[in-house]
Amino acid sequence: MAPAQALAVFGTSVDLTLTGIVGHHLAPTDALATLPFSLIAVGALASTFVVSRTISRLGYRKTFVLFSGAAVASGLISALAVQWGSFWLLCAGTFLVGLYSAATGYYRYAAADTADGARAAAVTTVLAGGLAAALIGPFLATWTANLLPVTYVASYLLVAIFGAIAALWNAMLPAELGRVGDVPVVSSGGRSRRTLWRQPLLLAGVSTTAFSAVAMNAMMTAGPIAGMAMGHSESTAAFAVQLHMVGMFAPGFVVARIIDRIGDRAITFIGIALILVAGVVAAFSTAEWAFLTAMLTMGLGWNLTYSGGSAMIAGTYHAEERGRVQPIAEAITGTFQVIGSLSAGAMASVSGWQLLGLGLVGACFIVALTTAKLRRRAAPSPTGAQP
Questions:
Q1: Could you tell me the residue ranges of all domains in the chain?
Q2: What is the longest distance spanned by two Cα atoms in the chain?
Q3: Is the distance from CB of 41 to CB of 99 less than 8 angstroms?
Q4: Which CATH superfamily groups domain 2-182+190-377?
Q5: 0.70 surpassed by pTM
Q6: Do the Cβ atoms of 59 and 179 come closer than 8 Å?
Q7: CA distance 139 to 243
Q8: Which residue has the higher pLDDT, 45 or 81?
Q9: CA gyration radius for the chain?
Q10: Residue of 148, 215, 227, 279 with fewest CB within 10 Å of its CB?
Q11: Residue among 6, 165, 21, 28 at smallest CA distance from 94
Q12: Span 17-55, pLDDT tens digits
């Protein structure tokens, strides 16, 4: 699953690096500039239950192959949008890459469901698979920008190419992923949805993943345009997204080694502290070093908070209960991704960027206190994980 994650990040890194900038060029008004980027999160949210149902019917492996096709279509449509200068066609392309992102969000669950007592390490190892792609992908996006006569057309064709490679790779995943996924979404076995969602550990996990999602998406969506509003160059804005993506995936290899030693709670709180740093820096300085630091530390904070929260979620259900937890947790997280992306349009200015930083500072304290309270109430999970 780690190479599958790498291929996903290779493809989507193009959208994450360039879509804010391309949307700014193609949008009929500045107010719509962040809409193509936001539609990635909207597409993911709209399809998360469809992905879960498909997993139930076809298993993880076939589902991942099927939704890789959405990346191929997305890349081709986005390339045509840039070629023709069509803003709304670009929106269609980015919406489709959201469908692909919804499926790749289940990669960590596929690994966790086969890892038994090493669920937390499995989640972080899968996320770590995106490191090489996070390092190389954004640079490929900018390096290929001028390979064809119309700038950025070749970059979006990379999305289609990596989507096709991902489909081939996912087709060769172990057969166990098909069998693990073959558990009905609606099953008579296990506990009810009501009982599952009254678990403090599950609520804590979803709270932290949702917070990391809204914070990361708001800053990543607003970042490129806000950076240019601060007087930084377009290349600096793209580099900030590249640093952000490195931060999102770089900690994975280290976290995979230590999360079982220090616990998901400690990892989560370290992540919240890093997001706090990003908020403070964004609120009090618009200098280039501060802009780049905020983007990098937000990526780092997202990785740790998201890893810790995902490990909490994965430790609260049995295999037959998966369909009552995973899609709902993904839908909640996806909703906050959409909120973060759509609200970023109002933050894509100097004053908006600083206001975003202040908002993150306050939110970090609220989430930290809420998570600590829920963890104290948590009982041992059904899979044997201790709170």
A1: 2-182+190-377
A2: 60
A3: no
A4: MFS general substrate transporter like domains (1.20.1250.20)
A5: yes
A6: yes
A7: 11
A8: 81
A9: 20
A10: 148
A11: 21
A12: 788 788 888 988 877 877 888 888 889 888 888 998 898
